[in-house]
Amino acid sequence: MNVLAAVLSIILVLIGVAVTVLLYQRRQKYDRFLLQHSLCLKTLREINARYRFFPCVSFDQQHTYDNEYFFNNISCEDYLIYQLQFIKKDVSSQIEKIRTNRQLYANYTEERNKISQFGQFQTAPDKLNEQVLLKREQHLLKKQTLAPAMQFNIAVTLYCSKINGYVYRRKRARFTDAEILAYISRLEQKNGNFYTDRKIWNSICRVERGKVSNKMRFSIFARDGYRCRICGASGKFARLEIDHIIPIAKGGRSTYNNLQTLCHSCNTKKGSKIL
Ligand SMILES: [Zn+2]
Description:
By secondary structure, the protein is α+β, with helices and mostly antiparallel strands. 53% of the residues lie in helices and 14% in strands. The chain folds into two domains: 162 residues, no CATH class; 59 residues, DNA Binding (I), subunit A (Orthogonal Bundle), CATH 1.10.30.50. The strands form three sheets. A three-stranded mixed beta sheet has the order 1-2-3. A two-stranded antiparallel sheet has the order 4-5. It is elongated, with a radius of gyration of 32 Å.
């Protein structure tokens, strides 16, 4: 009995495969005919050839913090504003291109919708079913209609990891072209190296501070021999900290040359002065 059931199910599967193959071959036959002889597909190809749309380029951002404090303190918005300092030119030009796509697409759709010669062929479709032919023609028309990039946005993903790289938290936000352009115009308000828009400046300072990863802290401590670079204090009670030689608020960056080891007491005395 079991053998019979097994044989039957194998036969059923084989029939299924055979039917699928036959249907596929039939579709292929119809599509070949249509691609060669359908008048409306020919018109669509001619319209397509006249339009050049800009491709979609991604400016999505991601960063991993190995320090939970910075991960909590820095928002995706802060991170985007910071990065826009360096990529704003390319981003603006990409937004411009996507807007051009939208205008072009309106014209394209208008032309595309005027196509009317459905079911008309250069040669008579011998032995082909008319219903199937019309259905396949609609399908191919849809498939060959261009679908250019029409939306621009930037997704920012921030990760929080252990110092060994193991990621255990994540946050993500997406920004529209209008939001991005608003940030870019606020980034234009500058006085020398400083941004005069408070919110923009605060975002940039937060991200700059967050660039000192735990990994970097340890290598700065090691470079300075685990000693305060002002008073030479070392050991458990010195409470060593990382100090920005030129403070971030004065335009300093989180680079190796601008970072030093100070004990808590020297760091407090130094404050935001440049020594
Ligand atoms: Zn000290």
